[in-house]
Design goal:
Elements: H1 7-24, H2 34-52, H3 73-76, H4 81-89, H5 93-104, H6 109-116, H7 120-140
Length: about 140
C-alpha cells in the first residue's frame, strides 16, 4: 500500500512481485535473508510499474537552499497512523516514493538514486520536499 494508489493496484504489485520471485527463486543464494530478498524484488516491481505509468515523469521543482525540514516525533504522535499514511500517499509522486524508500524501507540516498535512476542530490531534495509538505499537511490537521 505504500506505493499504490488503491488496494487493487497494491494487489497487482504484490502479485507481479511474487511472479518475479517464483521465476527467480533459483537465483537466491541463501547468503542473506529470504524475507529481505523477496521484499526488495516486490519493492522494485512496484517501482518499475510506477515508472511504466509515467508517474515519475512529473516536473521536479528545483529546491535550492531549502532547509532540512524534519518532522518531530511529538508532532505526529497524536495523529493516527492511517492518517499519516494517507497524507504521505497524497504527496507528489517522487517526493512520496523517496520518503517511503528512505524512512520506511531504510534505503540510503545512493540506493534510492540507483533504484529510481535519479541523482543523489535529487533524492535528498525530494526527501526534504516530502518532509516539508508532510509537515504542512500535519499542521493543517491539528
Amino acid at each position: 500500500m505504500y506505493y499504490a494508489e488503491s488496494r487493487a493496484e497494491a494487489a497487482d504489485f504484490l502479485q507481479d512481485g511474487f511472479i518475479t520471485v517464483f521465476g527467480k527463486l533459483h537465483l537466491f543464494k541463501f547468503q542473506g535473508s529470504l524475507e529481505g530478498w523477496v521484499r526488495r524484488i516486490i519493492v522494485n516491481t512496484a517501482l518499475s510499474a510506477l515508472r511504466k505509468k509515467k508517474r515519475f515523469n512529473e516536473m521536479l521543482d528545483e529546491v535550492e537552499n531549502m532547509q532540512d525540514f524534519s518532522v518531530e516525533t511529538d508532532e505526529i504522535e497524536h495523529v493516527p497512523s492511517a492518517k499519516v499514511i494517507d497524507i504521505v500517499n497524497q504527496l507528489p509522486g517522487k517526493a512520496a516514493i523517496v520518503l517511503k524508500l528512505f524512512a520506511i524501507e531504510g534505503f540510503t540516498h545512493k540506493e534510492i538514486a540507483e533504484i529510481m535512476d535519479i541523482s543523489v542530490g535529487t533524492s535528498k531534495s525530494q526527501l526534504n520536499r516530502a518532509r516539508a509538505l508532510l509537515k504542512i499537511e500535519l499542521a493543517k490537521n491539528e
